């Protein structure tokens, strides 16, 4: 089953592709734009839920989203039309690593999509290229809440423990790259649980509602395996932090 299709279905009931509640998203957006941001970029935007929320609440804002999933971008355009913000939203179907713009952005987001750049630090390097002086980066990535067990690593696809660090080390690495955290949010266990139940539940329900679809059985299998991996492997071990960052003055 195509990865983008799995993701779109799995995020039906939780459009934000990260363990963040609606309240947390709004609070982060409010903080990131409080300086009067006029241009916002989302690298790996998917269906652009961050941008759509930001645009709907801020009539002076213009936004750009970049993603490789053409269908997700089509859905984002439809949502933008429905909200009446389509004229202020530009969407680009391309690799986020190749995106370029003649103008910098006041806010650059990459939340839950750092894999597109090969990890947190490469993501920060890419974000830096697009950020205006004094601008705010909103970057969300995983960390270890506690030392991962072999079972947790196996359930996460057999990744190495070095894939992530603990929270203090993660933040120290960000600071060492020339960034200053000005705000942050560590997702709670409740936020993780809400996200995972929605992810696995939406995919499982789609399989139940489409028994004749050629990919129904695979969708049900993916949902069941993901649910097992979360509950029996990385629940309470894998954390998620969203950092609001400004470039440290030279």
Automatic annotation (TrEMBL):
Protein's UniProt keywords contain Flavoprotein: no
Record domain Methyltransferase: where: 41-135
Domain of life: Bacteria
Entry GO MF terms: methyltransferase activity
Sorted UniProt keywords: Methyltransferase, Transferase
Signal peptide bounds: none
Gene Ontology terms: biological process: methylation
Classification via InterPro entries: CFA/CMAS, Methyltransf_25, SAM-dependent_MTases_sf
Protein name: Methyltransferase family protein
